[in-house]
Amino acid sequence: MMAPARHPASMVAAQGPVLRDIHLPPDPAWWPPAPGWWLLGGLSLLALLAAAWLWRRYRRTRRHRRQVLAELDRLLLQHQHDDDQAALAGGLHQLLRRVARRHDATAAQQRGEAWRRTLARVPVDAATLERLLALDQAIYRATASFDRAAASSAVRQWLRLALQPRRWKPATQESADA
Fold it and tell me: Which pLDDT tens digit goes with each residue over 2-40?
């Protein structure tokens, strides 16, 4: 007797179909990125632009502060050479007015109490404020006599604070009407 012939199809049916291995999908492409990456890139760009703008503003403010203080030093040095009290008083007073004009457009024309209120918007002590107001009177005297060291230190103290805009107190309604 012969052995029964085995058919390959019958073997396949008994063992099941012949399957291929699992195929994984291809790796995702790196371009175009997902929407979250676009959002992150846009926010990063905005943050970079804001940082650059703040940095430029900071440098410009620092440069202006250095220029004003250098001009004060130049005025004091000039006074040491020519010993002209009236010119020093006028120069210091003009420097105060220019810096005050950046915060109050009417500072160039103010006199008396209005000028006092403008100077007082920067938080300095009463003695410093009086020395600054004495400059206003000294420029109109024929022979300006004032304490140069006290006036220059008062001007320097006021300028250092005045060149920081957050230090200025808001203008009161009465000074806006004056």
Answer: 555 555 555 556 788 888 888 899 888 888 888 999 999
Q: Which amino acid is at 29?
A: A
Which helix (DSSP H) or strand (DSSP E) does residue 50 occupy?
Answer: helix 35-82
Q: What residues contact 135, with CB distance under 8 A and at least 6 apart? A: 89, 92, 93, 96, 146, 151, 155
Angle between helices 112-120 and 85-101 (to 10 degrees): 70
Q: For residue 161, which of 55, 65, 57 has the smallest C-alpha distance?
A: 65
| 114-86-70 Cα angle (round to 5) | 80
- Give the DSSP letter of residue 25: P
**Is residue 139 classed as helix, strand or coil in its secondary structure?**
coil
pLDDT, one tens digit per residue, over 93-152 is 999 999 999 888 898 898 889 999 999 999 999 999 999 998 888 887 767 677 889 999
Q: What share of the chain is helix, strand, coil (3-state, %, to 5)?
A: 70, 0, 30
* Cα dihedral 58, 64, 67, 73 sign: negative
- Which residue, chain included where needed, has tokens 């160039």? 108
